[in-house]
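Input record (one chain):
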Amino acid sequence: MPAQREPISAPDAPAAVGPYVHAIRTENLLFCSGQIPLDPRTGDLVGASAGAQAGRCLENLAAVCHAAGATLGDAVRLTLYLTDMATFAEVNEVYESFFESGPPARVAVGVAALPQGAKVEIDAVVALGG
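The corresponding structure, as predicted from the sequence alone:
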């Protein structure tokens, strides 16, 4: 039997900037689309530094998790996309403040560019209660 795919729309996260949904729930996992640092109210890119942008990305992901009945603390893996790996330490400092104990597995990837000129994008895979 094929896995059920349930699209998740998060009213407190920025609107999608393309043909995708905020997340897909399948069985006990939530696959969150990448979040760039958009203000959910205005849709504007926010944060002058990579660290500030990472914080907004994580807040947006938290809103997506909340819409699915989970928290960002339930994440099992995050992927960080950075346009400048020299900002890794700054991003790491902000990231750590969101996961004070038991952080998820993580990947950090340097990329040439991100949508709307963002410096950071973050996606997540989240474990859901069964």
